């Protein structure tokens, strides 16, 4: 009964934003190419203690969103269990429905509004830390900086002491059994609440942890500008490594960086055996988390038999472009006892520069030996490493 799950509420109608969004529900609005609810899921997945997620969608959307989430998780596996539940008429009804999606092993639960996509994993860990310390319920709160007045009609009835006030956020964390009890009481006694803490407060003390100024809720049309913030360019690095053993006279002629090496040993390979371009392609894929060339161009596929490795590099460059990653530098090293590569170094560097569409100073090529040590020193094979720098739009 110690598992921790989070319920992501994405069942609201978003009536205050309907005109500004063309009728699209705010939980489906995109920020950095992903809907708001998926940003919330990503953040929860970065906290190791969170075992699973319950997504609560409008009843009419639930079947479709279940299918979409299967695709999301296939493309980007967050490493957590998940399920979809249909929401209710009110927020508290949606939470109550979400509780039915929790496994019996869930001892603590986090409730979060999908319209708050900017919360951090640190905030989640703070909430869980408070629960670990004995709190039965805990919420994030930020101090009220404005003077707050209670009004009656068009006149001020009272000025409130802002030192005693706080603005409350989600996620909110609770013992699962306690939250279920609160919802049962709310249903039986007709409570109308705006958050789960206001239910639990009637049954137990609710603790507070510091909230986050950035953890704003997308509620009004002016909030939409937060989803149009300027994109940032982030440097990223990919590293590639490849090895080919030398073969006999009927294997692939030696090619490095797309340059034939006359008199060099042949290599055993499915494609053209260009160990340098294979390492380069893997490094490019590394700049945007694109996997490896073995996944994209398996040696079991006859289409890649004796394939031009320059073509493979051009293909991974296209993948990088689709991932909005621009390659700006490559540092390459070939390790081999034979053949002597110094006479070919300048041509290899020029050809790689051409493949990458870079200036000469953006590609560095080196060749070295391992002082007759290991399989390269014994002239049994050749290997290459590549370090590629990219700039990615985030």
TrEMBL record:
Pathway info: Isoprenoid biosynthesis; isopentenyl diphosphate biosynthesis via DXP pathway; isopentenyl diphosphate from 1-deoxy-D-xylulose 5-phosphate: step 4/6; Isoprenoid biosynthesis; isopentenyl diphosphate biosynthesis via DXP pathway; isopentenyl diphosphate from 1-deoxy-D-xylulose 5-phosphate: step 2/6
Molecular-function GO terms, alphabetical: 2-C-methyl-D-erythritol 4-phosphate cytidylyltransferase activity
Binding site residues for 4-CDP-2-C-methyl-D-erythritol 2-phosphate: 242-244, 270-271, 292-294, 297-301, 368-371, 375
Catalysed reactions, as listed in the record: 2-C-methyl-D-erythritol 4-phosphate + CTP + H(+) = 4-CDP-2-C-methyl-D-erythritol + diphosphate; 4-CDP-2-C-methyl-D-erythritol 2-phosphate = 2-C-methyl-D-erythritol 2,4-cyclic diphosphate + CMP
Binding residues for a divalent metal cation: 242, 244, 278
Annotated site residue numbers, Transition state stabilizer: 16, 26, 270, 369
UniProt KW Nucleotidyltransferase keyword: yes
2-C-methyl-D-erythritol 2,4-cyclodiphosphate synthase domain segment(s): 237-389
Region entry 2-C-methyl-D-erythritol 4-phosphate cytidylyltransferase, spans: 1-235
EC code: 2.7.7.60, 4.6.1.12
InterPro entries reported for this sequence: IspD, IspD/F, IspD/TarI, ISPD_synthase_CS, MECDP_synthase, MECDP_synthase_CS, MECDP_synthase_sf, Nucleotide-diphossugar_trans
Positions bearing the site annotation: Positions MEP for the nucleophilic attack: 162, 217
Cofactor: a divalent metal cation
Pfam families, sorted: IspD, YgbB
Keywords: Isoprene biosynthesis, Lyase, Metal-binding, Multifunctional enzyme, Nucleotidyltransferase, Transferase
Region called 2-C-methyl-D-erythritol 2,4-cyclodiphosphate synthase, residue ranges: 236-394
Alphabetical list of PANTHER family matching this protein: 2-C-METHYL-D-ERYTHRITOL 2,4-CYCLODIPHOSPHATE SYNTHASE, CHLOROPLASTIC
Role description: Bifunctional enzyme that catalyzes the formation of 4-diphosphocytidyl-2-C-methyl-D-erythritol from CTP and 2-C-methyl-D-erythritol 4-phosphate (MEP) (IspD), and catalyzes the conversion of 4-diphosphocytidyl-2-C-methyl-D-erythritol 2-phosphate (CDP-ME2P) to 2-C-methyl-D-erythritol 2,4-cyclodiphosphate (ME-CPP) with a corresponding release of cytidine 5-monophosphate (CMP) (IspF).
Family to which the UniProt record says this protein belongs: In the N-terminal section; belongs to the IspD/TarI cytidylyltransferase family. IspD subfamily.
Protein name, as recorded: Bifunctional enzyme IspD/IspF
Gene name per UniProt: ispD
